[in-house]
TrEMBL record:
The keyword Ribonucleoprotein does not apply. The active site is at residues 302, 330, 507. This is S8 family serine peptidase. Keywords: Hydrolase, Protease, Serine protease, Signal. One of its GO terms (cellular component) is extracellular space. Residues 1-24 form the signal peptide. It comes from the Bacteria.
Amino acid sequence: MIRTAFRTRLPALLPLLLLGAAHAQLSAPATVARTAGVYPAAAAPGETAWIFGLSGVPAEGKLNVGGQTTEYRLDRPSGWLAFQMPQAAAGGPQTLTLRGAPQTLRLNVLTVPPGTDALVYVRPDAAKTVQAEYTRRLQALTETCAKSCPAEVQSVLRRLSAQPSPALTPLTAPVKGQGVTPGLAARAAVTPAVRAPLINLNTLKAANLTQLLNPAVRPAAPTDSICSALAGTVPTAGLPLGQVLTLLELIFAGDLQTDPTWSGHPTQSDAPYRDEKPITVLQKVLQVRPTSGKGTTIHILDTATATGDSFVMDGDINYYNQLYGNRPYHGRAVGEIAQAVAPGAQLNYRQVCEKDGSCSTLKTVQALCAVAADARRGGRHVVNLSVGGPNPTRGLELALREVTALGVPVAASYGNRDDCASLVAGDRCNHYPADWTRSFEFGPAVNLGSRSLRPTMLFSVAGWDIATRDMATYNRGVGNPGVLTEAPSVQAPGEFWLGGYPYFGTSFAAPVVSGLLASWMTCQPGVPLLPLITTPGQAPIAASVVNACP
């Protein structure tokens, strides 16, 4: 028998705060309806994680992380079940399965590059508290944890508390490669009325934490604009990133949120119509009549700046059994495809990814906040995100809600089959932001035949093969039997030639939808309803949407 983890102080903290403010962004009940939970809320392959609050299960055995099997053992001082994250674990939220455990255990698998640091977002009115009490709160939790936590958790707390508090700057400060609205950073730095924190230093030292931190009685965290936050970076060299993310949110509940500094990569994959212009291809397969898109700005958040694109896809690309070496550009190609559909639209390139293909969480959030500022000044706007990764970064979701609430639709690439490489049956193959498409639905449902659909402000765009006139084989999940994926919301052609190179993949399907959205907004209100059409031979987008304007 495994003794309960609620007998000591930190285990009393964890089920209450991890369930209510988990980094993995998974829904949690309003009250504590279960005793078992997972610590940390996120972990990278090779890192240790624990299940706490379980009783009546063997002291050692096997459990599954998605479809990957790993061994667990009882950590006797804490009563927690320790397990090492499988090296081949699929990225993003995965289900933990263990006989005798609740079926609702989840953990966010951080498949991020080595050396990825922690990014923190801090409420402006809590910035002074975070910086003044950063070390003291970590030390208080270290003392509370001294006799009740696994040794590794105690070590992480001691090493983390030895670091200085992170320097904080307004989230909307200008960054290289993109413009930020003048004055916005200054407004972000203005401190609003101070409110009582959800947790304080005394709370961390209190003996009876269960009553104080029960989410059923604790006031809910106010909903704030992510764009008004201050941001900073916490170095994680030698520390498990998942624990750092979780512990920082734990000690500053409601005042501080976290993400990895890495948010993803440009999505690409391994076009008939050689050397034909994109609009010529689209005219042939969708009968697109390129309308002006005048008065609409398409914001390309990618590898390009207003003056160039330094990204190069190194190595040979095998396309229809022919090799093409070192293909240049990504964001620039995305923009050219979008403008082919809506030639009158203005393109605004915002660089959020570096020339090596790594995309910055901070730059992406800053770029979206700049789009929100533009939208508040007026005009029509569309965002294209042909980038993504397996982890649901919180700042990105909040910033997307900021822009979509202003009537700005977003086209995001669904992700390609290489995202699911090496995964096994039972693994979930995630790709964000595309996999949030359902949570951005709005308005009443519309009946289309036997289906009931709702429009969305976030379009997850899969690739449609213009040769086979069917769902492209490069799409995520295709050819990966048993791997679980969220369905896309729409398909679009994703194979084009630009400058003598083939560009194909969901990255290049997304700007087709961005261009169509810009064209739609020229003469139509709101956003179109784009059902997922998967009938072979049938056009993936209805003619009424493709040519909505005269």
